[in-house]
Structures are given as structure tokens and as C-alpha cells.
């Protein structure tokens, strides 16, 4: 009987770490729907309202001063160490590295560059919009305030809106934006909103930002996240261009460079030098003269006897006794006298 192995939690974790054979087809790209446009317009109106309230030195500025004089870092000194660490969640460098590592793994696993490109576009928009607002309004922070009750605008500062808060909204909100399922998107959206507001309140606790700075920074980050679908065509074109560039480079590396054909060598007939030809002819003549000068070896003239006339010789050491009556081969026998019988 065949039984199927039940996967444990550790097996499912390692299965998630494996690379998928091809890009998943269920990845949806958020579109600029009517609901998102309404949220974008509402957030933009909130952004303008905060700026206007600070410019006219309204009740919001008075609230900023009241919170500053309250000095939360002295009222709740026991949580000061925790807040010092928690505020790092809004710093650009550490958060960008952590989120880029996660999105880089997702890009490798799903065979797409969209997560990394979306992070790059969102951070670029953050630097442009928030940086321009900071330098344009030039508001001083609580530690550098010059006049009690004033809005401290256009005095060379760079804290309005709060960069920590806006960065927390964009950095952690991009995880919700790139979520694969609607349920994950809702949970990650709520988590990023709470984290970013917590980072903003941590800066107020430490006295580095006004409360209005945090509200404006939260609105600035949310505007970037809501406007990101407008940049999806640009992200798609950039991904296509980068992948095509990679494929062309791989093709050039795979095919070796073709070298030009080597020229065919034509055999060259070498003519001997006249002096060398004369030497060679002289050597040949000397060799032929030496051969002709050799004396022929002749045997001394001796009388020639037929083989049949030679006397038989008994070999030395033969056991056969000599026979006096033996005739040589080819000799006629002598006539025997006839005797009377």
C-alpha cells in the first residue's frame, strides 16, 4: 500500500526557498482604479491642509509647541532606549538594505525584476518630492526653534515633512504593494501604516520633529504609494530593456568571435646559389672518379680440376675406415683378369 509523506513546516519553508521553474502567471499589477484615485485626492487634500495650517500659524502650530514643552522623553524616560532602536525602522539606509534583500530574493525566485524596480522608483520619488519640500519650506526643528509660538518656516531647516515617517511608509508599504494575494496586501498595509506612525511618534518623543512634521511625512509617503501604479508601464519597459540587454550579452559570450581566415601559403621554389651548385657538381665528379679508381680483386690462377677427379678424402674423426678400393664418382672400374675356374 502506497502512503504519501506528510510535509512538515520545515519542508514547506525549504520548498518556498526553491526557485520556481518559470515566472508565476498569477502575479497581478495594481492599476489606478477609481478607489485609488479617490484615496490619492483625499491624501493630497490632507497634505495641502497641513501645509496651510502651519503657514498661517494655526492651532496645529500651538499644538506642536505644547507637545515640545511637555518633553515626552523626560515624562517616559524608561522607554528611551527602546525608542532609540525603534526609530531605526525609519532610517533610509538600514531599511532599504533589508527590504532590497527580500525583494531581490523574490526577483530571483519569480524570474522578474519588477520588485526591485518598483522599490527603486518609489525611493527615487521619495527623494525628489520629500527632499524638495524640505528644502523649499526650510522649517527648523524643536531643538533649534528661535521664537516661541512661531511656525519656524523658511529659516534654513530641513525637517518638514518628516523624512523618517515618509521613508517608513514607502519602505514597508512597498511590501504590501507587491504582495501576491489580496489578504496579504491588507495585512501588510495595516502593518506598514502602524509601523510608520510609530516611527513618526518616536521622533516626536525624542524631540527631533514637530507633530505636524509627522502628519505631513505620513501623507507624503502615502501619496507616493498611491501614485505608484502610474509608473508601472515605465517599470515594465525598464524590465524588458534590462532583460534584452542581458540576453544579448549572453549571446555574445556564448558565440566565440570568428577570426578572419588564415592566408593560404603558396609554395616558393628556391633556386640554389651558383657557388653551391658548382661545389655540388665538383663533389659528384670526385665521387665518380674514386669509384672508377678502385682496383678489381681477382683470384690467383690455379689449375681447375673436375669434381669427379678429386680424391676422396675421409673426414677427420670419421669412424668409417678408409677403403682403398673405393673409386671416385664417375670413374670406370678396372678390368679384372679372368681366371680359370
Radius of gyration: 56 Å
Task: Tell me the number of helical segments per DSSP (H or I, 4 or more residues long).
Answer: 12
User: What is the multimeric organization of the chains shown?
Assistant: single chain
Kindly state the mean pLDDT as a whole number? 81
Number of strands: 0
Measured by DSSP, the beta-strand proportion falls in under 5%
In N-to-C order, the SSE pattern is: HHHHHHHHHHHH
Between the first and last Cα atoms, what is the distance in angstroms?
130 Å
The percent range for helix content is 55-70%
Structural class: mainly alpha
Uncertain segments are: 295-300
**Major sheet characteristics:** none
What is the 3D form? elongated
Structure overview:
The model is unreliable at 295-300 (pLDDT under 50). This protein starts with 8 loop residues before the first helix and ends in a 48-residue tail after the last helix. With 341 residues, it is an all-alpha fold. Helix 6 (92-110) packs antiparallel against helix 7, helix 7 (114-137) runs antiparallel to helix 8 (163-177) and helix 9 (182-206) runs antiparallel to helix 10 (211-227). The protein has twelve helices and no strands. It is 58% helix and 0% strand.
Quick overview:
The protein is an all-alpha fold. It has helices at about 10-15, 35-55, 60-70, 70-75, 80-85, 90-110, 115-135, 165-175, 180-205, 210-225, 230-255, 275-295.
